[in-house]
Structures are given as C-alpha cells and as structure tokens.
# Entry
Amino acid sequence: MKTIKVSVVTPDGPVFDSDVEMVSTKAKSGELGILPGHIPLVAPLEIGAVRLKKAGKTELIALSGGLLEVRPDQVTILAQAAELATDIDVERAQRAKERAEHRLHEQHQEDIDFKRAQLALQRAINRLAVSDRRM
Ligand code: ATP
# Structure
C-alpha cells in the first residue's frame, strides 16, 4: 500500500508524525479523504476528528479547528489544539462541557461570550466523542 507522510502540529508541539495510507477529516467545505498522490490543497478545518488509517488500524485525533495543507508527498495539519484519542482527559472534557452548557443557559449574556461558550461546548463534545471513538 502507498503511504503519505502526515504531521499534526500545534503551538505546543507535534501531536502526530508518521506515514499513513489515508487521512480523513472535516473541512469547512465538507468531508475530505486524502490518499497518496492527492492534488495540492489548502483547507480550513472544523472542530472534529482526524482519522489516520494504516495497516487496517485507524488512529483518531480530536482537532479544535485548524488548517490542512496537502502537498504531493506530505499532509500538514496546523491546529489550535489537537489530542490523540488516548491522550484525552475525559473528566476535564466533561467539566468543560458542563461549564459551557451552564454559560449558555445564563441570561443577559454578551454575544461574544455566547459564541465562545458554543465553541467551548463543541470542543468538549468532540473530545468526548473522539475518546469514545463515536466518530
Ligand atoms: P478547558 O476548558 O478544559 O481548558 P478548552 O477547550 O478551553 O478546555 P483548549 O483551549 O482547546 O481547551 O486547549 C488548551 C490545551 O489543553 C491544549 O493543549 C489542549 O490540547 C489541551 N486540552 C484541553 N482539553 C483537554 C482534554 N480534555 N484532554 C487533554 N488535553 C486537553
């Protein structure tokens, strides 16, 4: 099977660096599946999962949005935050989810706080889903 090198990088450092057979993730324009030899591409990514397939196994990463760049021999994902499914702290994500839900139910909030709370809720739900492999 042909492979392509994939790097997932955050401001805190690299999260994943390996060769895989297929990368799939959610771009703002829709689901993307990238195989070796894909045409060059730059795409903004949503809060969601990155699936990395190799030798019949799928590694899952929770991604808090970012930018995907495809070059002939390399896929790079620059993310605000990214965690391997196995590195996700489920209790922390559960607490973040409850905090965000609480904020969304408060009254008289500013729009900007509402948007922030919605994004925090999405990140937390995404981490819980990736950790449970419900993606
Ligand atoms: P919290 O309120 O728990 O900090 P958050 O969504 O605001 O959640 P981020 O700002 O997205 O957190 O991330 C800050 C850093 O913490 C990043 O390095 C991210 O990878 C890490 N992180 C956040 N939540 C978790 C989690 N549940 N498990 C592991 N790492 C996490």
